[in-house]
Design brief:
The complex is a heterotrimer of chains A (210), B (561) and C (340). With 210 residues, chain A is an all-alpha fold. Chain A has seven helices and no strands. Chain C is an alpha+beta fold and 340 residues long. Helix content of chain C is 34%, strand content 18%. In chain C, strand 2 and strand 3 form a beta hairpin. Classes of the chains: A mainly alpha (210), B mainly alpha (561), C alpha+beta (340).
């Protein structure tokens, strides 16, 4: 098929090898991302071990509702992304584009709720600095990490949305073949971003909240 | 090697050459050809090498007098910081991988290009983007935190453009990661038929192991710098002691990357030397398998020794002991490599072209650098010597005496392949010898004054050290001349140099089985590999082919080694 | 007084370090000469055109040689590690009654407080042949106190105490420099270590203007800041009794048991919510904004004196805390530098 012919790129000898190559490449990138977030999580772990009481006090102020809604949104988006990838392997063009669109919508909804959550946090004054409402001072460590962790995650999600959006447009305008091996790459990245939220959620929202 | 590819070799820069395929600037800036990207990198890193070099030239000039000559302390501090930042991230880390790795990896394994050519171009743009941020920091006045950005100085007390500099380094780190991902995928997926793992040239193994380190270590640096930016620009407390933060946590995160980073700088250099010495000794590398295992061992254990930069930082004595022990262990595979390179010379048939001079210089200088590393791995010695010129001398011996020498060796060795021209051997040898002498004159005195108590990062210093500083500065001047010379004779060779044949050194390796310069697709037909690497015959005296003779095959391997 | 050379070894430990250093120099020189000789020798003997015998060695020979020098290198390096490490381990034993001197580093000076109350700037006077323990902290960035003639240095951190222990065996005036880049005037943040005979040191101490020792001054602060309001035995507020506290094990509310060392006392004053004592409510306010580092030094000296004298009369500079005890859950407050 003409789609399969354009899917093959230099320097790959055949499409199977290319798919495998994309898989190797994206997993290596995920490995680097694991270390990226891992360093951040290490900081969190160190400070939580040093100041458990302060972290309990600080963690009680996070917005569990928004966090949980966002968890559900991302989990669902991973489902739609998985369907999209599977459909792409079978050349089901409309399904692929529809599922990518849904994924983008769910991701955008996450960012919207994130924005609402950030407004709520700011309204409570939870920006570390001179007028921070909580005591002891180490509660500011928790919140400093909160802004960095959720911010970095949100940036990753936004980049993911941009890439998925680009793919959706290119597929729609037939600038990219449906069977493109790159679909697997972007899906793996999306699942990774989802997994990071699955890890961040209990650390930021459920700690000591029983 | 194979006889199949010989018939396809073209001898000159015909339109088939990658250099001829598109003459506009745009064709260069939008290329996905790994060979052109290598040249884009080479031009960029050379520019930064000289910027970093000028910075330290000013520093060494200032250090001729104990109370300085013409710089304020602010300016001095910013100059040495910029020297470190630029040399580490904008020269040394990309140097061999982004230039020679990019150019040679597909050629050496018999592929048309790297696995992800567009990612390759993107990695160069990341480099340029990061560099732009750093240049902005430089022309706006610079940073004075040292290349190590220690908190709380960097987050709360330093004046200067810390955020810009840190952002520049953050971005260029992703260039590293992209290159690493590309190389690993290439090595796994695109080897020519018959090119098994243990038939790969050691340079390819070096690219593979360094890529693993780049992919896994660099993200931790990225996060360390991101946290510094978060604290400094957004007031988010991460390392602020007043609110319970731990400034030493930054050091752990920073050195977790920065120690493997020095192996990022040395592993490719070792790869180059392993290509050059067998060629000019006309003999297969001694102990190929051990050389491979040594590369892997260095890469792995290199992740476990970061605490040896922190013996006086407030770590527990137990941690000091563990890191000290592991640091001694990681020295063993490096020592094995030195012995193997030396043993390769035994019963060889040695000539002393410029690449060989640089490679032999590497072995000697790396030995000294590595042995002084053992000094620093001993905790009581390090407690005295850390943060003095002893450490400066140590790391310059391995990074400059080591990596830069190997970079020069590779540059000269593969220049004919990349450009299709021969350089002036007489000038190159002169530059190599001048480099060796200038380097030792610059850095040997620093060991002495360091052990005698001369701290590092000092603008003003006690009079008693002046003689050593003057010696070191004069050496630096000689070194500067030696580094400028290649610019001149390489530039000259591009226009007037003799045209090179496909294999002017009569070397083994698939890259020599295609024309100089290679065609855009590297090989008209992908070769099939069925011999071991470094199949330099041990009984046959092979004449060095001059570039007018047609490329000839080295004799097939005839036992031994 | 003229300052002694950087290279003077002013303690027994310094001499040991020098010994280790020179042995390493000898070993490294031998290895370097060996490698250089082999490279030069082979280059000469096997240069192209020479008549030396070439041809292969047996494969087994090659492999045996490889294994041989790998093992030899490993053993040599392990030997050097063991030797240097044993050097350091013996230096880690803190002698029981070290004289404690407090050092506060800030950009770009060293403020020193002698146990007798005398204050110095950029100078530390010590008696010879007495174990000295510097208790150091920084007011701003990370500095490093470097005593080249003791062959010792230790980073000085904000928010934490680090320690440097040594026993000088030579009188004289020695260099003291900052060895962690700390900003513009890092290179001029230098000072002097003045080692005197014991009688000279006593004379010098008596001649210093501040006669009150640290513990006395701390006692005054203890009242002035209102600490006795809660912590005095007669107070109606339920607060821990501080007599004999220093050096004792303290059970915390979360089940951990920590040792009350300087770091614990410091944190209790500045970050009281960090470690709540078992059986007490977390009602103590933080005094971070009310006191300076110098005040802290005095308060801690006073609290330490409460251990040696149950009546509350000031005692001399305190006993070294149990070193090596990990503070549960945190970075350990253990001696950071090499010691005699």
């Amino acid at each position: 098929m003409s789609d399969a012919a354009t899917a093959l790129r230099e320097p790959w000898p055949d499409l199977d090898r290319q798919r495998e190559g994309v898989s190797v490449g994206i997993w290596l990138f995920i490995a680097s991302e694991v270390l990226f977030f891992g360093a951040l999580l290490l900081g969190y772990a160190v400070y939580r071990a040093l100041y458990p009481e302060a972290f309990r006090i600080a963690g009680a102020e996070t917005e569990v509702f928004y966090g949980s809604v966002n968890l559900l949104l991302l989990l669902t988006s991973s489902v739609t992304m998985t369907i999209a990838v599977d459909a792409s392997r079978h050349g089901m063009r409309r399904t692929v584009i529809a599922c990518l669109a849904l994924t983008i919508l769910l991701g955008a909804a996450f960012l919207m709720f994130k924005g609402l959550e950030y407004s709520a946090d700011i309204a409570k004054g939870l920006l570390p600095g001179a007028h921070f409402p909580l005591q002891p001072p180490q509660t500011q460590l928790f919140w400093g990490l909160y802004w960095v962790m959720t911010g970095v995650h949100a940036i990753h999600l936004a980049i993911g949305i941009a890439i998925v959006g680009t793919f959706a447009v290119m597929l729609w305008r037939r600038l990219m073949p449906i069977e493109s091996p790159a679909m697997l790459g972007v899906a793996t990245y999306w699942h990774f971003v989802d997994t990071v939220w699955i890890i961040l959620f209990p650390l930021l929202y459920l700690v000591d909240r029983s | 090697m194979t006889d199949a590819a010989i018939a396809d070799v073209a001898v000159d820069t015909q339109p088939a050459s990658y250099l001829g395929a598109g003459h506009t600037l745009l064709s260069w800036l939008t290329t996905t050809d790994h060979k052109r990207i290598a040249i884009l990198y080479a031009v960029s890193i050379t520019l930064f090498f000289f910027i970093g070099g000028i910075a330290i030239g000013l520093v060494r000039l200032e250090l001729m007098a104990p109370r300085g000559l013409f710089l304020t302390s602010e300016a001095y501090n910013r100059l040495f910081s910029l020297h470190g930042i630029i040399m580490v991230w904008f020269f040394l880390v990309p140097s061999i991988p982004a230039t020679m790795g990019n150019f040679l990896l597909p050629l050496m394994i018999g592929a048309h290009d790297v696995a992800f050519p567009r990612l390759n171009l993107f990695s160069w743009y990341l480099y340029v983007f990061g560099a732009a941020f750093t240049v902005y920091a430089l022309i706006s006045g610079g940073v004075d935190t040292g290349w190590t950005f220690y908190t709380p100085l960097s987050t709360s007390y330093a004046t200067g453009y810390v955020v810009a500099a840190a952002t520049g380094v953050f971005v260029v780190g992703f260039s590293s990661i992209a290159t690493g991902v590309n190389f690993i995928a290439t090595a796994h997926m695109l080897r020519a038929p018959g090119m098994t793992w243990f038939r790969l040239p050691l340079f390819v193994w070096a690219m593979y192991t360094v890529s693993m380190v780049m992919v896994l270590a660099t993200p931790v640096l990225a996060m360390s710098l991101l946290l510094v930016i978060a604290e400094r620009a957004f007031g988010l407390p991460i390392f602020d002691a007043a609110r319970g933060g731990d400034p030493v946590l930054f050091q752990h995160l920073f050195w977790f990357y920065s120690h493997p980073a020095v192996y990022i700088m040395i592993l490719p250099a070792m790869g180059v030397v392993s290509e050059v010495i067998p060629c000019f000794a006309r003999k297969t590398i001694f102990g190929y398998a051990f050389m491979v295992y040594a590369l892997i061992t260095i890469a792995v254990i290199g992740f476990m020794v970061w605490g040896h930069h922190m013996f006086v930082a407030g770590q527990s004595p137990l941690a000091n002991l563990v890191f000290s022990f592991l640091s001694f262990i990681v020295a063993v595979p490096s020592a094995i490599k030195v012995f193997n390179w030396t043993a390769t010379l035994h019963r060889g048939e040695i000539t002393f072209e410029a690449p060989m001079l640089y490679a032999l210089g590497f072995v000697g200088l790396f030995t000294i650098g590595g042995l002084t590393g053992l000094f620093l791995a001993s905790v009581p010695i390090d407690i005295h010597a850390t943060d003095t010129y002893f450490v400066i001398a140590h790391f310059h011996f391995v990074m400059v005496g080591g990596t830069v020498s190997a970079y020069m060796a590779g540059l000269h060795f593969w220049w004919p392949k990349v450009t299709g021209r021969m350089y002036s051997e007489a000038w190159a040898r002169f530059a190599a010898i001048t480099t060796f002498l200038g380097f030792n004159a610059t850095f040997l005195p620093q060991f002495v004054m360091g052990w005698n108590g001369m701290p590092r990062r000092y603008h003003y210093y006690p009079d008693v050290f002046q003689a050593w500083h003057v010696m070191s500065s004069v050496g630096a001047l000689i070194l500067a001349v030696a580094y400028v010379l290649p610019l001149i004779y390489f530039g000259w060779s591009l226009i007037y140099g003799r045209r090179a044949g496909a294999n002017p050194w009569n070397a083994t390796g698939l890259e020599w089985q295609t024309s100089s310069p290679p065609p855009k697709e590297n090989f008209h037909r992908i070769p099939r590999v069925d011999v071991e690497p470094y199949a330099y015959g041990e009984f046959v005296h092979l004449p060095m082919a001059d570039d007018r003779t047609p490329p000839s095959l080295p004799s097939p391997a005839s036992g031994g080694g | 007084m003229t300052i002694d050379s950087f290279m003077t070894a002013a303690s027994d430990y310094a001499n040991e370090v020098d010994g280790t250093f020179w042995v390493l120099v000898v070993i490294s020189s031998l290895i370097t000469l060996l490698v250089a000789a082999l490279i030069a020798g082979f280059s000469l003997r096997y240069r192209r055109g020479s008549t030396a015998r070439r041809g292969p060695l047996s494969e087994r020979f090659g492999r045996d040689v490889e294994i041989g020098w790998t093992v030899a290198t490993l053993f040599l390096f392990l030997f050097i590690f063991w030797w240097a490490a044993s050097n350091q381990l013996s230096a880690l034993n803190v002698p029981g009654h070290a004289m404690e001197i407090h050092v506060v580093a800030k950009q770009w000076m060293w403020r020193v407080q002698q146990p007798g109350g005398a204050r110095e700037i950029n100078e530390i006077h010590v008696p010879e042949n007495v174990p000295i323990r510097l208790v150091m902290t920084s007011e701003d960035v990370i500095h490093d106190l470097f005593l080249p003639t003791m062959r010792l240095k230790q980073d000085v951190l904000p928010g934490r105490y680090t320690y440097l222990s040594f026993t000088p065996t030579k009188t004289g005036v020695f260099h003291l420099t900052c060895a962690e880049y700390c900003g513009t005037d890092h290179s001029v943040m230098a000072g002097r270590l003045v080692v005197m005979t014991a009688p000279d040191y006593a004379r010098w101490t008596n001649a210093q203007p501040e006669a009150d020792d640290l513990a006395h001054q701390g006692e005054a602060l203890f009242s002035a800041l209102g600490c006795s309001g809660c912590h005095a035995p007669t107070s109606s507020i339920h607060a821990p009794d501080l007599h004999g506290l220093y050096g004792r094990a303290v059970p915390l509310a979360d089940g951990r048991v920590v040792t009350a060392d300087e770091a614990y006392l410091r944190d209790s004053i500045l970050l009281p919510a960090k470690d709540i004592v078992a059986g007490y409510a977390p009602i103590m306010p933080s005094f971070r904004s009310a006191i300076t580092e110098d005040d802290l030094v005095k308060l801690i000296a006073y609290l330490k004196s409460l251990s040696t004298s149950p009546t509350g009369a000031p005692g001399s500079a305190g006993v070294s805390p149990a070193s090596g005890k990990e503070r549960a859950g945190g970075t350990p407050a253990v001696p950071g530098g090499g010691q005699q």
